[in-house]
Backbone:
């Protein structure tokens, strides 16, 4: 049994929707980062699948760059998250109403 392009795209869509629901519903910044990573990985699955089925490496190269950008985003985001936790004592979005300098 071989998987068609539609199967990969359906999987990618389902994973993207799960990440999108996580971004919309979460109040914790750490879970927000995780949901964003899930969405980026869903896009990577779609790009790699389309690239494979068309016989072109362009989609796989885009997926590689997305992984690199996501890694740097996580590093910067977690650094800011640690700083915010030290200042506020919480990473809940409701407790971070005003950002004072």
Residues:
């Amino acid at each position: 049994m071989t998987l068609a392009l539609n199967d990969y795209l359906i999987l990618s869509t389902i994973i993207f929707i799960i990440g999108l629901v996580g971004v919309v519903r979460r109040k914790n910044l750490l879970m927000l980062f995780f949901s964003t990573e899930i969405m980026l990985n869903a896009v990577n699955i779609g790009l790699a699948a389309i690239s494979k089925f068309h016989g072109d490496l362009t989609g796989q190269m885009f997926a590689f760059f997305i992984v690199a950008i996501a890694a740097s985003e996580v590093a910067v985001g977690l650094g800011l998250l640690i700083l915010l936790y030290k200042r506020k004592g919480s990473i809940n979005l409701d407790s971070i109403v005003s950002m004072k300098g």
The helical segments are 5-25, 29-54, 58-88.
